[in-house]
Amino acid sequence: MPDRLSPLDASFLYAEHDTTAMHVGGVMTFEPREGFDVDALVALIGRRLGLVPRYRQKVREVPGRLGLPVWVDDPEFDLAYHVRRSALAAPGTEEVLHELVGRLLSRRLDRSRPLWEIYLVEGLADGRLAVVTKTHHAMVDGLASVDIGAVLLDLTPEPRETPDDEWRPAREPWGLELAASAVLDTMRRPQLALDVTGRILGDVRYAATAVGRTVEAALDTGRTAARTRPVHPLNAVTGSQRRYGTARTPLAEHRAVRRAHGGTVNDVVLAVVAGGLRRWMISRGEPLTHHTTVRALVPVSVRARSGASGSGAGNSISAYFVDLPVAEEDPVARLAAVRGAMEAHKRGGRAVGAARLIGLVGLAPPVVHSLAARLTSQYSSRLYNVLITNVPGPPRPLYALGARMADMFPVVPLAGGQAVAIGVTSYDGAMHYGLTADRDAMPDVAVLAAALRDSLAELVATIP
């Protein structure tokens, strides 16, 4: 049977268009070390590619869109196409690196090949090397995208042994075979849906509760769309070109704020973003009234709950809508408001209902599913104003060919009508904020990055 994309994974393919590239990734920098160079990294990637089999597979559409797309081995896989080299002009500042990253993020991945690219960037100050990764969101969600580092990274300076890779591509199926398989899946779909529902819900009583939550989630989404208004300058006409910004902050300070005021580290992250957006909007002269809020879409991975694991697990994501009180002057009050909103979501179980809605959409014909995904991306500013993802990363240092990784900044995709998307990843005692922005709508992305650091300092100053 073909390895068919899940409805959610397929939606990331359908949502992509000329001005909306749907790839995630990261920007990693490494400390200098003898023997750590571009040639050695290319060789390492080649040896370890067997650890992520999906990286040698491409997407095939089913003729007539009779079913969701499938993953197939790429018989013409070319490692040299996916691993590329670049160099910065002297003196190799962070600003020059960010400019390069923005240009790399602007280009969509080639659908006729496996959906990933790695750029090895030389010429950073102090002899450092940067690695920029791009992976299509259809392949992996935020939590699993951290695990993709298994291709390069080790827990110790001594590289681990890599088993021999004797990969041979499977025969690529013919179009008629894909169509026939899709028809059979469609014929079996009602019974399969009942089987899956039975396994998930367990009994009729729980099923009734789940259906009620799903309906409530649908109604809540409708009410959210009705209440949400575009926020200038966060929602604007956007193009295909990107800028990139970063903010490196101490994880210990986030934890200290949490201990002092309660909540979770994720609550502190959202409060930091709220304060940063407030400072940035004020710097632009934007009027803030008592009722001004910014609605954030906060994805939550449910992989641990569902038991999904491994590189083939794909996406398993739910999400919350959270109103960020950017008009609130008191940083502690901002944190309290965010904490209350997140606790209300968790008590209400709305994220579970929203996740089940995705499954219901998957029962619709793929053509309708494609249209729905495109419309969701096209009109995202009517549902939310900014995307914020927070994915925990490794708490200890990691290495590639013995070189210590200094930083690991995330890259998240930018939906249509969104000026900026903010990804957050913890690593080795630091909290790394990565900002993907539209080049024309947000020329001052560096100002927002600095505002995030100032917002955290403001919260730290409130600790007794």
Automatic annotation (TrEMBL):
Signal peptide: none annotated. It is an enzyme of class 2 (transferase). Pathway: Glycerolipid metabolism; triacylglycerol biosynthesis; Lipid metabolism. Residues 314-459 form the O-acyltransferase WSD1 C-terminal domain. Its EC number is 2.3.1.20. It catalyses: an acyl-CoA + a 1,2-diacyl-sn-glycerol = a triacyl-sn-glycerol + CoA. The keyword Lipid biosynthesis applies. Keywords: Acyltransferase, Glycerol metabolism, Lipid biosynthesis, Lipid metabolism, Transferase. This is Diacylglycerol O-acyltransferase. It comes from Pseudonocardia abyssalis.
